[in-house]
Amino acid sequence: METEMTAWQRVSRQHPCPVCNRPDWCGYDNEGAVCCMRVTSDKPAKNGGWIHNATGRASPPPRRYAANDYEPPDFNATLWWRTTRRVLNLETLDVWAERLSIPSSFLMFMGATTACGMLCFPMRDGAGKICGIRTRDPDCAKRAITGSRAGVFIPGVRDANRETVICEGPTDAAAAMALGFEPIGRPSCTGSERQVVDTCRRWGIERVTLCADADGPGIAGAKKLGDVLQAAKIVVRLVTPFGHKDLRDWFKAGATRAMVDAQWSQAEWRER
Questions:
Q1: Which of 18, 55, 193, 259 has the highest count of CB atoms within 10 angstroms of its CB?
Q2: Is residue 236 assigned to a domain?
Q3: Which domain holds residue 48?
Q4: How far is CA 208 from the centre of its chain?
């Protein structure tokens, strides 16, 4: 007889993840199981996270279809993005830009759109095709529309003359672009290594800067990605946003390209 499944709940600022202590992206149930999207365990979940303190079960929390109450059987991420992009309200985007302290033009470059009060970004696979939609609620909760597959956040048009920086999330990627870099944003601090490598190869990139969030999981995830990139014969250096939580916070605090270059110049380039 199968054990009855209990409902999974999203973490929040009031109830952060017991494993990584972050207020978003993870989930838990009422039997002590936690699906953490940042800290690994020996029980990987199908949504890219890992089960901790589970009672013999390794089922991830279901993703919500955040745009409306209708959940299509086959989610066409490209069509969804194009449809919402055509009706994008620039005033709404400006409100989000002010809230995030990032110029709206760079959110646009990253493919930002809006729906039902949410800020939305396309995720792309290694070939550059849109494979999912990441959403950000007004309460700052970060989710993905049901049917999405995890991918990277990259600009719609690439500037090959810019230095490439890999960071975490679409808003950090937008901040990197505002600082004059060519960004690749990961959906979390772990996972999506294949999409990152494929994107680098498709762009012909020979070296990248990995900007890790200034916490344990962020640095550990960046080191793991660095090993993967080095194995793919891509030269890497690992840096952090000097004295700040992430790259967007550093940019919000007034970082300039000159300041960033001066700080990161001390990091060692590594190759296999």
A1: 193
A2: yes
A3: 1-62
A4: 17
